[in-house]
Design a protein that fits this description.
The protein has eight helices and four strands. By secondary structure, it is mainly alpha-helical. β3 and β4 form a beta hairpin. α6 packs across α7.
Length: about 200
């Protein structure tokens, strides 16, 4: 994960999402079900564009179809239904990360984390906690990695390997890596330029 700058609310968000949601919540303040009241989905395209198509939790590009972009409620609807239709509570997330986060509240907010809290180990490409951190932040980073299964699922690690392998083979330029896998790009600048080169990475694969 990398820090994400919160983007302004779209001009038509009030009419598309909040007003409809507020009307529903006035009648049903504590919804048990949200069927046919998922007005937040009306903001998905704005969210997808505003946050450059990058998942807030994996820090990688979400393809429109295969990646299935979703609206994640950072504070779950079940905990605070009054935030269900608020732009500032939305995070762009791929479906896999959204389902893993679910209604748990032990994942760090991408709007509030700082660069360097999560580090990428080379050549394993496992995400680790910065050794410079102290509790409680250290434990929060560790819990986030565990909750989102950023290292437990082989597909997550292999996806990072695919991005870096293609870059190191010269299949695309660094600017493209920065746009589509910004966490890997940031770590590649900070760490591989100093201690680990692309040639070393490819030779160890």
């Amino acid at each position: 994960m990398i820090p994400i700058t919160q983007k302004p609310e779209p001009g038509d968000f009030e009419s598309k999402v909040r007003s409809k949601g507020s009307s529903f919540l006035r009648n049903v303040p504590q919804p048990k079900v949200w069927d046919n009241r998922e007005y937040w989905r009306e903001s998905l395209e704005d969210l997808y564009t505003s946050y450059n198509q990058i998942c807030a939790y994996s820090a990688q590009w979400i393809p429109r179809i295969e990646g299935t972009p979703t609206v994640d409620h950072f504070i779950p609807k079940s905990a605070k239904p009054e935030l269900a239709y608020e732009w500032n509570n939305f995070r762009l997330s791929c479906q896999k990360m959204n389902s893993r986060k679910w209604t748990f509240q032990d994942v760090l907010d991408p709007f509030k984390i700082q660069n360097g809290w999560f580090i990428l180990d080379f050549p394993s490409l496992l995400i680790k906690v910065s050794p410079d951190l102290e509790d409680p932040v250290k434990s929060q980073v560790k819990n986030t990695i565990k909750r989102l299964k950023l290292n437990d699922d082989d597909s997550c690690v292999k996806h990072r390997q695919d991005w870096l392998t293609q870059y190191c083979k010269g299949k695309f330029k660094f600017e493209f890596l920065k746009e589509t896998a910004p966490f890997i790009a940031y770590e590649q600048i900070i760490r591989t330029m100093v201690v680990f080169s692309c040639s070393q990475f490819l030779n160890m694969k």
